[in-house]
């Protein structure tokens, strides 16, 4: 068991701790395989009124390493030039992307088979070099998409549920430790939802003060959307968030 969690469970005294605020998501990041491509992307993006776009070197390999430790941007451009098995690399990238991310691939091969493989792996568009303003604008412009979307954009989070037959069997301990492990070691964004409305103590164990968001959500489920959840969650760390009842209900 994690030493912090063990000591908190044995002696849940309040301890002042500094909580790292959640990192904000970049709107667009591009990973170029060479300097010429990086320069073309920077020039085109600046003309497309995307001055805050971030261009990095290293291609899709750098993108995979980056997303292994940082939040996904809303939109990502990856250069697959010179990459062996590019569709497989795109699949690896998709596993690290957060739900709703749009992935655009650029490369030097004009191959319909490659295009189909990339789309199946999760990209929304494939642009063949040389990069021009018109090609990039078309790739980044909103367009009607099928209801099911791309494999990456329709990606949903995974849910793991812990249910205890009675109190004292370690359900809370298991849930908290798994949430901490996934967030701290696996670099995943995790929401720990405590639905034990009478005796839930996830927030107490993690030494945080939850918002009234869970109570509001249960009272009015129609209010739940992305903005509501962002405001209702309490950040325990950069990647671990908690949604729990502020004052547990007294048993009837």
Structural notes for this entry:
The protein has a 5-stranded parallel β-sheet with strand order 2-1-3-4-5, sandwiched between helices. It has a 3-stranded mixed β-sheet with strand order 6-8-7. The protein has helices spanning 3-10, 35-47, 59-67, 86-96, 112-121, 133-140, 171-184, 202-205, 213-219, 226-232, and strands at residues 28-32, 54-57, 75-79, 102-107, 125-128, 190-193, 234-235, 240-243. It is built from 10 helices and 8 strands.
Core attributes:
10 helices; 252 residues; elongated; disordered N terminus; alpha/beta; 5-stranded parallel β-sheet; 3-stranded mixed β-sheet
Q: In one word, what is the shape?
A: elongated
User: What structural category arises from helix and sheet content?
Assistant: alpha/beta
Residue fraction in strands: 5-15%
Order of helices and strands: HEHEHEHEHEHHEHHHEE
What is the overall pLDDT average? 81
Approximately how much helix is present in the residues? 25-40%
User: Helical stretch count?
Assistant: 10
Count of DSSP strands: 8
Instruction: Please mark out the parts with pLDDT under 50 across 5 or more consecutive residues, or reply none.
Output: 1-21
Largest sheet: 5 strands, parallel
Termini gap: 34 Å
Rounded radius of gyration (Å): 22 Å
Write the layout of secondary structure elements.
Elements: H1 3-10, E1 28-32, H2 35-47, E2 54-57, H3 59-67, E3 75-79, H4 86-96, E4 102-107, H5 112-121, E5 125-128, H6 133-140, H7 171-184, E6 190-193, H8 202-205, H9 213-219, H10 226-232, E7 234-235, E8 240-243
Helix pairs in contact: 3-4, 4-5
